[in-house]
Write a structure and sequence with these properties.
about 300 residues; alpha/beta
Length: about 300
């Protein structure tokens, strides 16, 4: 696949996803936002290169004052989120990062190298493979050792088995003209074992890094209330934190191009870029660009707004 075709496909995926959330915005405005999103992404990559853990320690800029907490810390793939674990380590927390096996394989050596270059012990930041069957046991063990378990909520948390009903296994978070859906398992674990849950995210700031960590917000307080009451308060607090974060700029979200939505039974009747689980193959014929929907065997001509320049 040609580079230009990949770029066109990426832009089309981005537009298709974002239009479902912001149906009131004209396409011209969304294209402007796309350009801003690309610029943000490039800026974040520059920050990752410039601000290693060693340099962050030298700057002595953590973003917030350290508070003595343990438990689960929820955050999001928002802004330069890869700085967040390093900022927490710099603040003196022993961090346990819960990640998928693929991410662990890709980034474990990166974190080890960062710790070594900064002259810190390797146990300041450890990782748990979320795909392993004993991952919950490792979470409980880390919390028992007074560590902070860091969990990123993804935009595709709603992807899963259709029979997992909304409300029982998923939390619906209104945003734009649609919803995000996140799994509720982590909250059930916290309520069952009396684990405190907090939330934070990256926020714009006037400092050398240009970003800082938002002060921790309490999501679950295990001191009082039934499990049902704790869960309801947790959902309300998490939704409020999410909207506060997005209000500073929704195009700081890390990966709009691959947002998944839980459409339930209605997804079966949809085709093309709105179908759930479609595969789109780009190609060119008679100087025109097309996408072929493999599952539904349909062709879509790529809009003329895509140029070769």
């Amino acid at each position: 696949m040609k580079v230009q075709e990949k770029q066109n496909l990426h832009r089309l995926m981005w537009l298709a996803n974002v239009q479902q959330f912001f149906q009131d915005k004209p396409v011209s405005i969304l294209w402007e936002h796309y350009a801003t999103w690309i610029n943000n992404r490039d800026n974040f990559e520059t920050l990752y290169r410039e601000f290693s853990l060693k340099r962050l320690c030298e700057l002595n800029k953590s973003g917030i004052e350290r508070v003595d907490i343990t438990g689960i810390l929820i955050t999001f793939h928002y802004g330069p989120y890869r700085l967040l674990p390093k900022l927490l380590v710099h603040m003196g927390y022993q961090v346990t990062l819960l990640v998928s096996g693929a991410v662990l394989k890709r980034e474990l050596n990166y974190y080890r190298s960062e710790l070594e270059d900064a002259g810190l012990l390797q146990d300041q930041l450890e990782c748990i493979d979320a795909n392993q069957a004993n991952s919950l046991r490792h979470i409980l063990r880390a919390i028992k050792k007074k560590r902070l378990v860091l969990l990123f909520l993804d935009a595709d948390e709603g992807v899963g088995k259709e029979e997992e009903g909304i409300g029982e296994h998923k939390l619906a978070v209104p945003f734009g003209s649609h919803f995000f859906y996140w799994r509720t398992n982590i909250f059930k674990l916290a309520c069952r074992f009396g684990i405190p849950v907090h939330c934070t995210y990256m926020k714009r700031a006037n400092n050398p890094v240009q970003w800082k960590i938002t002060p921790f917000m309490n999501i679950i307080d295990t001191t009082n209330g039934s499990s049902e009451e704790l869960m309801m308060r947790a959902f309300s607090a998490l939704q409020m934190a999410f909207h506060q974060m997005m209000n500073q700029g929704w195009i700081y979200w890390e990966n709009w191009a691959f947002i998944h939505q839980y459409n339930g039974q209605a997804a079966i009747d949809k085709k093309g870029i709105t179908a759930k689980g479609s595969w789109l193959a780009p190609f060119e014929y008679n100087r025109k660009k097309y996408l072929f929907d493999v599952k539904n065997r349909q062709f879509f001509e790529v809009a003329s707004c895509f140029t070769d320049s």
